[in-house]
Amino acid sequence: MPQFLLELFSEEIPARMQVGAAADLARLAGEGLTQADLAFDSLRTFAGSRRLTLVVDGLPAVQADRVDERKGPRVGAPDAALQGFLRSAGVAREALTERDGVWFAVIARAGRPTAEILAELTQSLVAKFPWPKSMTWGTGKLRWVRPLHSMICVFDRQIVQAEVEGVRVGDISEGHRYMGARRPFRARDFDDYREALLGHFVVLDVEARKQRIVDRARALCADRGLELVEDPGLLDEVAGMVEWPTPILGDMDPRFLELPAEVVRTSMRTHQRYFAVRRPGLPGLAPHFLCVANIETADGGALISAGNARVLSARLDDARFFWEEDRKVPLETRLDTLDGVTFHAQLGTMRQRVERINALARAIAPLVGADPELSARAAWLAKADLATGMVGEFPELQGVMGGYYAAAQGEAEAVSEAVRDHYRPQGPGDTVPTAPVSVAVALADKLDTLAGFFSIGQAPTGSRDPFALRRAALGVIRLVFENGLRVRLGDLIASAQLAYDEPAAGLLAFFADRLKVSLRDQGKRHDLVDAVFALGDDDLVRLTNRIDALGAFLATDDGANLLAGFKRASNILAAEARKGALPEGVPVRVAAPPEEQALFDALTAERPRIDAALASEDFVGAMAALAALRAPVDAFFDSVLVNAEDPVVRANRLRLLARVREETRKVADFSLVSG
Amino acid sequence: MTPSGPRPSGPLSFQDLILRLHAFWSAQGCVILQPYDVEVGAGTLHPGTVLRALGPKPWRAAYVQPSRRPSDGRYGENPNRLRHFHQYQVILKPNPPDMQALYLASLEAVGIDPAVHDIRFVEDDWENPTVGAWGLGWEVWCDGMEVSQYTYFQQVGGLDVSPVSGELTYGLERLALYIQGVDNVYDLAFNDPQSPAFKTYGEVFLENEREFSTFELETADVEMLKRQFEDMERAVPRILAQTGRQGQPLVLPAYDHVLKASHLFNLMDARGAIAVAERQSYIGRIRDLCKACALAWVAVEEAAA
Fold this sequence. Notes:
The complex is a heterodimer.
Chain A: E1 4-10, H1 15-35, E2 42-47, E3 51-57, E4 66-74, H2 79-89, E5 96-99, E6 102-109, H3 114-128, E7 148-155, E8 158-159, E9 168-170, E10 172-173, E11 185-186, H4 190-199, H5 206-223, E12 227-228, H6 232-239, E13 246-251, H7 261-271, E14 275-278, E15 288-293, H8 302-326, H9 334-338, E16 342-344, E17 348-349, H10 350-364, H11 372-382, H12 389-393, H13 400-408, H14 413-421, H15 436-455, H16 469-482, H17 489-497, H18 507-521, H19 526-533, H20 540-554, H21 557-579, H22 594-615, H23 619-639, H24 647-665
Parallel strand pairs in A: 7-9
Antiparallel strand pairs in A: 1-3, 1-7, 2-3, 4-6, 5-6, 7-8, 10-11, 12-14, 13-15, 14-15, 16-17
Helix pairs in contact in A: 1-3, 5-6, 7-8, 10-11, 10-15, 11-14, 11-15, 13-14, 14-15, 15-16, 15-17, 16-18, 18-19, 19-20, 20-23, 21-23, 21-24, 22-23, 22-24
Chain B: H1 14-27, E1 31-32, H2 47-50, E2 59-68, E3 84-93, H3 99-109, E4 119-123, E5 126-128, E6 133-142, E7 145-156, E8 159-160, E9 166-171, H4 172-180, H5 201-219, H6 222-240, H7 251-270, H8 276-304
Parallel strand pairs in B: 1-2
Antiparallel strand pairs in B: 2-3, 3-9, 4-6, 5-6, 6-7, 7-8, 7-9
C-alpha cells in the first residue's frame, strides 16, 4: 500500500518545542486524512533540531467515490425555485430523483487522487501549524518557528506537488552540518530516508538519540570507574539539541567541589546542559562532567572537552567569588537592599513583605507545633538571599543559598532549614517540608501571597494566574495534609489577613475549589467530596477522614440501602414542601403501627451515639450508628403510608422523615451523593 | 590575497580578528561602517541597525561597536567582565536564505574549524525593551561557550518589520579569548606579538576600565544626569517636529538624543539612582522616544521607496 513521507527541514527548532510539534503534526495530519475519508494503517511523526517528519503507511492511491444527496424543493414547486436549485446544485434536471414528494439531486463525486489531497493537506498543515512562537523571515509572509528551507513530500515514491511560499518541495534533504559528505541526499520512501539520514550522521528518532546518549555516557563513565547521575529532564532537552549525539567526559578542578553541590549542579545543568558524574558508593559529585556534543571529531573530542572545561571553570570561578563575598555580609543586612526592591506596586517592597511573613510565621507557629521565636527568625531571613550575588547570578538557587548562608552565620539548624525549604512545595512533584519551623514559614510565605493578591482583587481568572496563586493554595493544602495539621483554614486566612486593610474576598472559596481538585486528583469520588464539603468544615484532616469513612460506609449493603432510604425520605419531604409548609416540631412515639414506633425508637437510640461519635471524630463509629437506622427505615417505607388521611398522623410521619434527613446530614449531605 | 595583511604565525590578534571579519563581510556585499560616535549599550543601537532595519530598502552593513554598560564595571579586577567591550555587528536585510551558512563560514574565516568544534544553535529569543525591538533566534555556542547572538528581527521601535533583517552580534573579547586560548581578557594580544610595539588588551584598555568604573559607579553626578535625561527627553519631539530642507523630519538628530537619553539612564542605574519601581517607567519613556523616531523614519523611507 502506498506511503506518504513528509519532512519539514528548517533552522534549529527549540528543544522544548519538539515533543509538542511531533504531537501536533500527528494530530493535524490524522484529522486531515480522516476528513478526506482517507484510511491508513499507521501514522508516525518525528522531531529533531532541524526537522519534523511524518510518515503515513497504507494509504489508498485514490480516494473512494462518494455520492452526496441534496434536498431540493417540493414536487410542484414553482419552476423558478426548481431552476434555482438545479443551478446551485450544479446538476441537470435528469439527475433529480423524487422521494416523498420532494426533489433530491444526486451528486456523484469521483474519488480524487490521494496525491492531490496530500498536497492540499501539506499546505494547510504548514499554514496552520500551532507553534508556541513563530516568525517571518526574508521578504516572505510564511510563518514557521524558524526559517523553513525545504520539504521532502513524496507519496508512493512520487513527488507531491505541494506549493509552500519560498520553500523547495521535492525529494531532497540534508544531513549533519559538518559530518560526512555535507551534501544533500534524495529519498522517495521512509526506509531510504532513515537510511540516508544515518549515512549522513543524523539519528531521526528521539528515543534512539536518548538511548545512544545514555549507553555511551554510561560506557564512558564506567571506563573510568565512574557513574552517570541520571537526569531524565536534561536528557529530553539534550536529545532535542543534537542530531548525532556524542557524549564526552570532561574534567573539572576538584576544588570546585568545595562549593555547595547545588551551585555546581546548577552551573552544569541549567547553564551548560552537562550531566553530573559520581563515584559509585560515594556521596557527592566526582570532579567531572558529561557533555553531549553534536559531532564526532578526529581528535576524539579533545578540543571540545577542553573548551567546555574552560567555560565551566569560568562559571564556577564566578560562583566561588560570590560564595566567598556573600558570606562576608550578615543576612539581616540584606534587608536594607530588599527595602529598595518592589514586590508588587500595590503590595509594597520585599522588606515589607518580609515583615508580614515574619509576623505571620510567629502567629501561626503555635498552631503547627513550631517554636514562635525560631519561626519568626527564619521568616526574617527567608528572603535575604535575594540580595546576594549568588542568587543574582543563579536565581533558581533562592532559598537554597539562604539556607547555606544562615548556617554559615551560626543560625539554629531549624532556622537555616526553614530558610532553605520555605518555598516548598514548588510543584506537584516537589516534596513538602515536615520540620515544624519550616512548615510555619512555608505556610506564612504562601498565605501572605494569597491574602495580599486577593486583597487587591488579583484572584486568578480562567487560565490567567500570573502570580501562581493556585500553586500557592495547593502548597498550603499539601502542607496541612501531609503533616496532618489540625488547623482550620479559616483561622490561617484570618491571621494572614491582619496585614491588609482590604479583605481577601473569596479566598476561602478559592481554597475550597483547589481542595476539591486536589481530592479528586487523589482519586476521591467527586460526589462524596461535594457531600462532605457542603457541611462547611474547613479542617482539612477531619474533612478527608469524613470522606474516607463515608466512602467505606456507602460501599456496604447498609450504606447503600440507607442512601436509598434517605433519598426516598428526601423526595417525599420535597414533594410535600411544594404543597405547603412542612409540619414543625418533633415527632412523638406512637402506639401503632409498629414500624413507625420502631423508627422512632431507633432514631432516639442512635441520635446520642451519632453525636458522641462525631464529637470524638470517630466517623466510622458515626457511620455504624447510622447503619442501625437502615432496617427500621426500610421497614417503615415497606409498610407505612406517609400520606395518611388523618393530618395528625401524616404530620408525625413527616416529622420522622425530617429527623432521618437531619441525622444523616450530620455526616454528609446525602442529597449530593450520586447513585 | 588576505586583506588583513600578513598573517601572524600564532592565533589571531584582537585586531586581526576584526580585520578578518571585515574582509569576510565586505566580500558579502556589506558596507563596512565605523563605530557610532555616541555612547551605546549595544551594537544594535547604532542607527545602522535600529533605523536601517525599518522600512522596505535592502541594507547590508558590518561594523565594530564599542559598547558601554556602566553597571558591569569591575574596576579592571575581573578577568571576564568589562564595562566597555566590543561587539561585531552584522545586519543583512532581507536576511539571505543561506545566512546560517554564511555565519558558519565567518567562524571558519576567523579560525574556528567546525569539523573539530561543537557548534550549536541554542534557543534564545532576543529583545531590547528600550528600543521596542524583539526577534527570534539563538545564542551560538562553540564548545559550550556563547560566541554570538543570532536574531531574525520581528519588531523594531514597536513596529513590525518587513523585510526581515538577520542580525549577528559577535562578542569580540570572548571570541578572542577562545581563539587565543587565554583566560584573562587583559592578556589578549591586541596586535601582532611580533610587532615592535606589541600591546596586550590590558595595555590598551585597563586604565579605561579603572577610571571609568570609579566614575560611573561612584562619581557621576546623579542630579546632573537626571537633568540631562529630561533635556534629552524634551528635545526628541521638538527635533522631530522640525523639517529639513527637503521637507523631512529630523529623525537622525532626534535618534542621537534617544541614544544619549539611554546612556544617561544606564549611568543613573549604575549609580544606584533608579529604584526598582521606577525602572520600568524610565525604559518606557525611552521606548516611546525611540518609537517616535521609528515612525518618522518609516514614513520617510516608504515615501522614498
